[in-house]
Amino acid sequence: PRLKYYKFKYADWKANYFLPTGIILGCIGNAGDVVVEEHRLLAQFALKGHQESKESLECVSKFMERFDEEKKIYIIPPEEFTKRLDFREKRIFTVDPETARDLDDAIHIEKIKNGLYEVGVHIADVSYFVEENTAIDKEAQGKATSVYFVHKVLPMLPRIVT
Pick from 104, 107, 92: which is nearest to 148 by CA? Predict the structure, then answer.
């Protein structure tokens, strides 16, 4: 027989009892089933379902006017180039595996003087899209991280930002 998971409501744990007592609320499903394991892990670790609120999506909607649908890229406002280093002339390549769902880690290697090499580490920074104390900021803080399952990802931020 396959192991099953049950939803249990804690009632009491008396000092002289080896285990707590409670009420079985129902069967969640078979252990090993991908969807059942997802629900179990979400419950076990008190993870949020990672569904974005309407308010959170509104926070990123103002950036969508600069998104080129055809090229699937965000057009960087010219004033941002005065605040950041521009690495577009460097040969930068991802270090994420072929199976990665987000290509957000990269490096560059460049020979510099005296036989030395410069290695640059580039990590995607989406903080530009997350203003402090907004709905998207508060939701991201509550989630703390993206959650990667075998069959899907529950992103910390709305997918359009990542």
Answer: 104
